[in-house]
Write a structure and sequence with these properties.
Blueprint: E1 7-8, E2 13-14, E3 20-29, E4 36-45, H1 49-96, H2 110-163, H3 170-197, E5 205-208, H4 209-219, H5 221-227, E6 230-235, E7 239-242, H6 244-261, E8 267-275, E9 278-285, H7 292-295, H8 313-323, E10 327-333, E11 336-344
Parallel strand pairs: 6-8
Antiparallel strand pairs: 1-3, 2-3, 3-4, 5-7, 8-9, 9-11, 10-11
Length: 347
């Protein structure tokens, strides 16, 4: 006020009469000089501020209640959106892992329900296409396997007849053996096709991991000696839940690849170790390794670096591992290649 401006007190106070008052200040200026020569103070009742204060408190309460209601509504809405979106995400992940048999459940929300219907339609189409492809592969394989069996039989009979003939037919017998070798190769291709196309139900039992590796080593002991490769077992105990026949077949395939990749005098290690939540069955060889540009392709069906190979061994082994809720991974560099077949531990 002494600076020449009007002002009012911010603080209310009660008088002796119990009423609320507020002070106002006004400058008194000299008419000629314009200077403030005095300040006038006026105190007046301010009871109208009481209902204003009550109104302000009421607004504050209403604002707080409104914010709580909005927060609750936001949580409920988010939960209502998150749950169906989470189910759609799980369904998409299942389809990405190759599970095309589990239907996508419908959703109530219009937009999310439309997405669920489209995803279910896509799943049915993929399932139908996958079924047709597997039936086609299995049908072709069966049709090819029948004449192969007949050819193998007649080649064997011809070989027996030539064996009883004169020694001059030795060259012909060599040709017959070559034919039989090629027939065995074609038969193995057909068997791999059938194994890859077939949905094989698991017969799970508790199996000792070290015992699996010992069985695999005994299966290929003769081939390892013929190639001059030492097979070493380094495994700790660990019980896994597995279909023993399928897992043994997959590991035999991995060991056979390792033997073929190892130089004469080389060393292949069958290793079993416990890791977090699982048991790793590893096959390590000392071959030249797999180039980085091919490492991502070795698990693709029909990709092979060998002159004679179906390209289904590693994809089939990975399929068996994933059917057990495990995994098959590759780590490779010159002089060291490791394939890790992981299975869930029991207990």
């Amino acid at each position: 006020a002494f600076a020449g401006e009007q002002a009012a007190s911010l603080v209310l106070f009660e008088g002796t009469d119990g009423k609320t008052y507020k002070s106002g200040y006004a400058p008194v200026k000299d008419e000629q000089t314009g200077q403030v020569v005095a300040v006038a103070v006026v105190e007046a009742e301010a009871d109208f501020f009481r209902p204003l204060g009550a109104l302000g408190r009421a607004f504050a309460v209403l604002l707080g209640v409104g914010l709580l209601l909005l927060s609750a509504a936001a949580v409920v809405t988010a939960a209502g959106l998150a749950a169906p979106l989470g189910r759609l995400m799980d369904a998409a992940l299942r389809m990405g892992r190759g599970d095309l048999s589990t239907p996508v459940r419908p959703e109530r929300t219009r937009e999310i329900g439309t997405l669920a219907l489209e995803l279910e339609s896509m799943r049915r189409q993929l399932e139908g296409r996958d079924r047709q492809l597997k039936m086609m592969i299995a049908g072709v394989a069966h049709e090819v396997r029948n004449p192969l069996g007949g050819m193998e039989l007649f080649a064997g009979l011809l070989d027996e007849e030539l064996a009883s003939a004169s020694p001059s037919v030795a060259e012909a017998r060599g040709h017959v053996e070559r034919v039989r070798s090629e027939l065995r190769y074609l038969t193995r291709i057909v068997e791999d096709f059938l194994a890859f196309a077939r949905e094989q139900p698991l017969s799970l039992t508790e199996v000792e991991g070290r015992g699996l590796l010992e069985s695999v080593r005994s299966h290929l002991e003769g081939e390892a000696q013929a190639r001059g490769v030492e097979v070493v077992l380094e495994a700790v105990p660990g019980r896994v839940s597995a279909d023993e026949g399928l897992v043994t077949a997959a590991l035999v395939n991995l060991l056979k690849n390792a033997l073929q990749a190892s130089p004469k005098g080389g060393r292949v290690v069958l290793r079993g170790r416990v890791e977090e939540g699982g048991y790793a069955l590893e096959v390590e060889d000392c071959g030249k390794g797999i180039p980085a540009e091919e490492a991502d392709k070795v698990f693709e069906p029909f990709f092979t670096t060998r002159e004679k190979g179906t390209g289904l061994g590693l994809p089939l082994a990975r399929k068996i591992a994933e059917a057990h809720r495990g995994s098959l991974t590759l780590e490779s560099r010159p002089g060291r290649t490791v394939l890790s077949f992981r299975l869930p531990l029991v207990g």
